[in-house]
Design a protein that fits this description.
Shape: elongated
Number of strands: 2
Helix content: 55-70%
Number of domains: 2
Radius of gyration: 25 Å
Strand order of the largest sheet: 1-2
Largest sheet: 2 strands, antiparallel
Length: 403
């Protein structure tokens, strides 16, 4: 019964996390778009704010931004913060349930680092906390006054953190923690900087005082950082479903490419929405960065090496029946304890993703998935818990190629 409760808890947390993330990302994109489309009016000149007209759902909307206090401060003022808080809190709880509670399955890979579950917890949580602290120090240092220099150092820092996670965790766990680290930066910016600074500004305006411009400047800087990190974070949150993204030992370089691509895409939208042109070259570079990521990934996995002629292709075998029997034996001994009607692995109540591999018909039906997950990548079994050998993976590859 406890296992079923945990299964539903993970499902509900994942649902909540996705919904909250959609709300947070949506509001972030909307306000960046709104800021870019503000235009001065007679009663609201550029030095005091701006106005934007929009049409949606059959109605017309007029949004106004005040850099100083409006004549009448509204009784109700909406603070956009809980989208961020809910996304991070649900994400952290999901990390605890899906990864830390099942560290041997998805987080710890003895071939990378033979660490205990407790050590994995401390490295993961400590890495997120320490990463935020260092990032915040960088922003508050003299480096924070030079946006270009800060961006370069911040970029290198994210890559270094990803590389560090790769020294302790499985590829899947390392990339997920890299995404969690960037998400922690984003939510930390909202909780520790943006909202407190906005409260100080509002308090000054209500008191009839002139707010210190440093609060608005700092909040805007952190908000901009969040805007450029959004797309890479989404990529990394999805990466655990696609082994080619994390199976390479150079996954940190994949992250670097995704950071470049995601930031350029967001920058194009920021410029385009502000009516400052259409720099197509940004899309060209963004797409090229993704192709570089694909090249890095595939060139360091068996399937990529075969495609690029770096590994000799296996010849077709004539004894297909014997090969099929051997492949079935491997799957039955290495995979079926989890992928069956009633999984025998402790802590698993239902076959992961509904995939069942406990007879020859089911194994043959899932041949392509087996090939992708256990032959051309090492995503399965998770962290090689059942100790499948390279020779056995090679058998699975040849079996699929001879179907």
């Amino acid at each position: 019964m406890d296992i079923i409760i945990w299964e539903w808890a993970e499902f509900m947390l994942r649902w909540l996390h996705v919904i909250a993330g959609m709300a947070w990302i949506g509001s972030s994109f909307y306000f960046m778009h709104l800021d870019a489309n503000l235009r001065p009016t007679k009663d609201l000149p550029a030095d005091k704010g701006g106005e934007a007209w929009e049409v949606h759902g059959g109605g017309f909307y007029c949004s106004r931004k005040y850099l100083t206090a409006p004549e009448v401060m509204p009784d109700h003022l909406t603070w956009h913060k809980w989208q961020s808080y809910t996304t991070w809190l649900s994400g952290f709880c999901l990390l605890m349930v899906a990864y830390y509670a099942s560290a041997e399955l998805f987080l710890i890979d003895p071939e990378v680092a033979d660490i205990t579950v407790q050590s994995a917890w401390m490295i993961g949580i400590g890495g997120l906390a320490l990463g935020w602290i260092i990032y915040n120090i960088l922003c508050k240092s003299p480096l924070g006054h030079n946006e270009t220099a800060l961006a370069v150092v911040g970029f290198a820092f994210v890559i270094a953190v990803t590389f560090a996670f790769q020294q302790f965790f499985s590829g899947r766990g390392a990339l997920l923690h890299a995404g969690a680290f960037m998400a922690t930066i984003m939510s930390g910016n909202v909780f520790f900087i943006i909202i407190p600074n906005q409260r100080k500004v509002v308090a000054s305006l209500i008191a009839g005082e002139k707010p210190d411009p440093k609060y608005g400047k700092e909040a805007k800087q952190r908000s901009t950082h969040n805007n450029y990190l959004t797309l890479p974070v989404v990529f990394l949150m999805l990466s655990n479903h696609y082994p080619l993204s994390f199976s390479t030992p150079y996954a940190y370089l994949v992250v670097a490419c995704v950071l470049v691509s995601g930031a350029l895409i967001r920058h194009w939208f920021n410029i385009h929405h502000a009516g400052k042109g259409n720099p197509v070259w940004m899309w060209v570079v963004a797409v090229l960065a993704i192709f570089v990521a694909i090249a890095i990934s595939t060139s360091t996995t068996p399937v990529g090496q075969e495609m690029m002629g770096q590994r000799q292709q296996e010849e077709k075998t004539h004894d297909v029946a014997a090969l099929s029997e051997e492949a079935s034996d491997i799957v039955m001994s290495r995979c079926s304890m989890c992928h069956m009607d009633e999984p025998a692995w402790d802590g698993i109540v239902l076959a992961p993703k509904g995939v069942k591999l406990d007879n020859e018909d089911r194994i043959k039906r899932m041949a392509e998935a087996i090939y992708k997950q256990a032959a051309i990548t090492t995503a399965m079994p998770p962290n090689n818990l059942t100790e499948i050998t390279p020779e056995e993976r090679d058998v699975l590859k040849r079996w699929y190629q001879n179907l």
